[in-house]
Amino acid sequence: MMRKIPLFSVDEIQELIPKFADSGISIEIEAVSMGPTSQIATSLYYILVPEEDFVDCLISIMTHFAIEPVSNEGHHGECPACFAEVNGALECPDCGLSFAGGPSESTRAHPFYQFLETNNLLPF
Q1: Closest by alpha carbon to 5, among 80, 70, 55?
Q2: Contacts of 112 (CB under 8 A, 6+ apart)
Q3: Cα separations (Å) of 87 from 76, 78, 83, 94?
Q4: pLDDT reported for residue 108
Q5: Helix (H, G, I), strand (E, B), or coil: what is residue 43?
Q6: 85: Cβ–Cβ under 8 A, 6 or more apart, which residues?
Q7: Integer Cα distance of 40 and 47 in angstroms
Q8: Which of these, 65, 55, 64, lies nearest to 123 by C-alpha position?
Q9: What is this structure's pTM?
């Protein structure tokens, strides 16, 4: 049985395919057309992966997109934005820069991240 993982741009697919090949993960690609069916339609791609490679595939994609848990450890030292001294805080007391990490807004908006979140597949 093949599992379907949504949706990636052509550039993302081109970056991911060699990672799967290097890891020995067998995948297939399924294109879908988004928008009008004219010359300006955009193609996005599903990754189809055998059940036995599903978890390894997810891990590979999460690594590629740097999807990691939010840090609960505070920052020590200078703030890289304003150079204020920070002693174990999750955000700079002067400029408010967050040191918590976690995925960016654009990553959280990506169909893959939403797939993980919707299906309770995030490891954190």
Answers
A1: 55
A2: 5, 6, 7, 8, 61, 65
A3: 5, 9, 12, 12
A4: 87
A5: strand
A6: 77, 78, 79
A7: 23
A8: 55
A9: 0.72
